[in-house]
Design a protein that fits this description.
The structure holds two protein chains of two kinds.
Chain A: H1 3-21, E1 29-30, H2 40-54, H3 63-86, E2 95-105, E3 108-116, H4 118-141, H5 148-167, H6 171-189, H7 196-227, H8 232-236, H9 244-261, H10 269-273, H11 279-288, H12 293-300, H13 302-306, H14 309-332, H15 336-356, H16 362-389, H17 402-405, H18 407-421, H19 427-442, H20 444-469, H21 487-507, H22 510-519, H23 530-552, H24 566-572, H25 577-622, H26 630-652
Parallel strand pairs in A: 1-2
Antiparallel strand pairs in A: 2-3
Helix pairs in contact in A: 2-3, 2-5, 3-4, 3-5, 4-5, 4-11, 4-16, 4-21, 5-6, 6-7, 6-11, 7-9, 9-12, 9-14, 11-16, 12-15, 14-15, 14-20, 14-24, 15-16, 15-19, 15-20, 16-18, 16-19, 16-21, 16-22, 18-20, 18-21, 19-20, 19-21, 20-23
Chain B: H1 6-23, H2 29-52, E1 63-71, E2 76-82, H3 84-103, H4 115-134, H5 138-147, H6 149-159, H7 164-197, H8 204-208, H9 214-231, H10 240-247, H11 250-260, H12 262-275, H13 277-303, H14 308-329, H15 332-363, H16 379-392, H17 399-414, H18 416-423, H19 425-441, H20 457-475, H21 478-494, H22 507-527
Helix pairs in contact in B: 1-2, 1-4, 2-3, 2-4, 3-4, 3-11, 3-15, 3-20, 3-21, 4-5, 4-6, 5-7, 6-7, 7-9, 7-10, 9-12, 9-13, 10-11, 10-14, 11-15, 12-13, 12-14, 13-14, 13-18, 13-19, 14-15, 14-17, 14-19, 15-16, 15-17, 15-20, 15-21, 16-19, 16-20, 17-18, 17-20
Classes of the chains: A mainly alpha, B mainly alpha.
Amino acid sequence: MNISSTLASVVASGQIEASNIDPSVNAPAVATGAFSFMWLLIALPLLGAAILLIFGKRTDKWGPYLAIAMSCGAFIVGAVMYLTMLGLPANDRPVNLHIWDWVIVGDFQAPIGMQLDQLSIIFVLLITFVGSLIHIYSLGYMKHDPEKRKFFAYLNLFVAAMLLLVTADSYLLLYVGWEGVGLASYLLIGFWQYKPSAAVAAKKAFVVNRVGDVGLSIAIMLMFVTFGSVTFSGVLEDPAAANESTLTWIGLALLLAACGKSAQFPLQSWLLDAMEGPTPVSALIHAATMVTAGVYLIVRSAPIFDAAPDARTAVMVIGAITLIFGAIIGCAKDDIKKALAGSTMSQIGYMILAAGLGPVGYVFAIFHLVTHGFFKANMFLGAGSIMHGMNDQLDMRRFGALRKVMVITFITFSCGWLAIMGVPPFAGFYSKDKIIEAAFGVNVIVGAVALLGAGITAFYMTRLWTMTFTGKSRWTDDNKHPHESSAVMWIPMAILAFLSVVAGFMLAGAIETWLAPVTGFEETELAVSSLVMECASLALVVLGATIAYLQYRRDVPLVAPQHVSPLTVAARQDLYGDAFNEEVFMRPGQWLTRSMVFFDNRGIDALVNGIAASLGGLSGRMRRIQTGFARSYALSMLAGAVIVVATLILVRM
Amino acid sequence: MSSLPWLTTIGVIPLIGALILLALPKESTELAKKIALGVSLLPLLLVIGMALNFDANSESEFQFVQSYEWIPTFGISFSVGVDGISLILIALSVILVPLVILAGWNDADDAMGSVKGYFALLLILETFMIGVFAATDVFLFYVFFEAMLIPVYFLIGRYGGPGRQYAAVKFLLYSLVGGLLMLAALIGLYVVSAQELGTGTFDFTTLTNLNIDPGTQKLLFLGFFIAFAIKAPLVPFHTWLPDAASASTPGTAVLLVGVLDKVGTFGMIKLCLPIFPAASEFYAPAIIVLCVVGIIYGALLAIGQTDLKRLIAYTSISHFGFIGLGIFAMTTQAQSGSTFYMLNHGFSTGALFLIAGFLMTRRGSRLIADFGGVYRVAPVLAGLFLIAGLSSLSLPGMSSFISEFLVLVGTFEKYTVAAVIATFGIVFAALYILLMYQRTMTGPLKDGCEKITDVKGREALAIIPMLVLIVALGVYPKPVLDVVNPAVERIMIQTGQRDPEPTVKPLGETQATERVQEAVEAIEGGAR
């Protein structure tokens, strides 16, 4: 028996096995050719933000155009990267670019480096494409704002940070993008700083996100002590080597982070307040891109969740809770942006749920993320167009019959409406039904929740659509003449509307193959055919939509009725999320800080001062020894010095 | 190059500058300011030169060493030298002094003391700060440690605002208590060294090589540690700091909190750990509890403050908790993080104090409630305030994030629970900074704030270098980490500490060999 050759084959087969366990074992290749310019993705918008902020008022005239150019430039770079990637075989697609050494202390090694693969390129394209459209739209929307330049600077800053988030090759660098988008979000929610409500909402968003960041910090620390690495290649190569409870903790910590950024239960409260920001911001940051970063984080960490089923279950449950939670809030809001924000929470709940399903769900989480990015951005821009035409009115009870005066907005918004409800062949149909199917494959209850959510979605979206566009006009005196927005605003809306129609069937099937090498993919096997599932969900959608249409077609009182069901009351109060925070954290917190300030002044300090005072009393008695003559002080000082010197000399002997 | 007397020259220049200032006639205030600024730039240039000649990977612990006999009878010498840690702190001192002079150009104009006296005191303080970080003789260290009190006492007591007398005396008494304990421990250390070596010594390197028995170590350690804990300050020795910082001029507050307090944490990492390794290990868990309490306690108190400067002072108490935590976690990451934290904290708190000073001078009030909507009249000031605040809350991308994260991850390796609790400090940090920004800068313009003007060129010149350093070192921390890492590794060796191994070994080495072994065993089994 030839031992050495057998040995070689066993070792070789071991390696093959290892690479079969997890697709991401294929270490990314070093970026060459076109890929070596991927740093431009971040550098361009960052440079734009820097120029606009540093040179200040001097850039007022041309600054916004520069910002648009930088964002579009990043899109072009992203498109070139994508096309280059298309020409490569699947295993060669992930590439890594080391830029410079960053935090190197002992075994802790985090470089500044970028990783581009099938997953991150999807985000790059979504962010730069939707981002550029919204830059252009803002040219119209923010036309008369005196601080327009600052707005564009912050938008560029956001795009740069978001691209860093999705292209970083380590969790530590991802963290920089993660809080970078948080900063941009803070600056843009509080853009109209003179409004106290905007300033408070901005701070709230940042602080609630920081609670999530505690999770991200702990996850990274756990990764370092477990794997000795914080890079994707180091952590995700073979996470199954660690014990499962550690992986579960890492997974839960990552979930906490995702809850903060993606406004998932129980950290959802900031998103509704974030609607204080200008509407393009709500479209880009608080609907299409930033709030989906939590989904990215979980899907990126797929190998960890694959090896930690308990953490995955937690992800699924949080997604399911939030999807219902957000949908219920969406049903009761009369403020069009807040209704859409509730919807965003709910839709991201779908994505998180899908990510919690494991390899059967990851790709659909991303699929729905992309289609949602198109149709929700489209609808937010539509809402912005309505506000623009109606003197910044937000109350849907003051809308009605807008389909006649804002024809383009009506058409584009309707595309989004049909897409989010999942009406075939609009985009949401392909992505959402896949999630419902996969959910049924894993757990019937979760599947049922997802299915029910589809019905509620149809209800609140149709309510919104009906109250806004159909029925009689309920316009107030100051906006008797709503008008359509200018081309610079409606063209981006039209493009997004087009994608809300076609993105679903264009990507269906293809996205599974594209993403499988990174996230892994398994088909869901159901007892019933998927046609039955589709019919069931479509039936619920039609039911929800019909109820809403019949209810809100005609009689919409100008003031919200007060005698309503307890659920409606609760939904209007965001299901008491804020009340809970107020009672459990804010009030006790204020009491705690106040009593601690008191304790610090009257307790610790008084104790020390008390000792000082008693010493003072003692010294009063001792004053009798003091004669007031300099020579006696000198004598006592000399005595003290002699003691010190004597000690030293004694020791030397 | 190291034959040049770098450190002595750097240290003496400000002292000479101070003497020149004192010789000036009392009326020539503008000239005094200009001379002070000019003189303070020289040490900065020299330190840059020294840093360029510093060999981070040198075999010897100290570089640019100079040693002169001082009191040979007691083994006391005038010995100076720098390692990575002291180089960083000397750099911090010489960067901050000119910026403080520039920002506080008019701070002493209406004070009870003379203008030239104010700037002379700042320069004298600079000499002592350089001395305390450069001393490699423990007795010399002690002399500088105590000498620093004199200029600071007068800076607070003669040039401060309301409550300055109380604050100055409180500062002095606290420091003297600490100094007394340290003196006792110092004499004890001398005694111990004499017992072991035959002749007593204060030489730092010799002292680190002693084998002091653990019981004695524990006693002596406490003498030094309490002195440093008062200086730093750690909770519960902290109540002097908010009073001292809020009663002094912004410039004095910057040097007090930014540099002087670092002498405490510097002493912990550079003296306590290497000289008393066994005692450090013994007390570490207790000190870590103290630091974690300090992080949360300082942050909560900051949230509850109504006075701008007191608020910033309490944020520093929280930050000193982080620095202490990293030092006593005793891992490479934590200690490098703590050292880097000392530098970053100097810049971010320095910028915050100075900007708060601009606001207070303009509005004539320290109360947060007297401000509101300031961004409308002073947008650049508001922007700079926000950037400095973001650094204080350790926003990723800024240098303070790197240091804070290193402290946390380094602590997590050994004290998981402590690290997790400390991590919640980042939520409170967001609260105290953003609440302060919201209350002072946003909303409608408050009555009395209309006359607040935006930053002037001189003021911007004082703030911007700090913010640029914060961002630059956040993106590219290598120049600092390269200098700090070898010094920290040496301390790890001196204290006999090692970083814990990751629980999962990299696939490359161990698992591959395991697989081969398994294969061999399988084949051997099959052959039988």
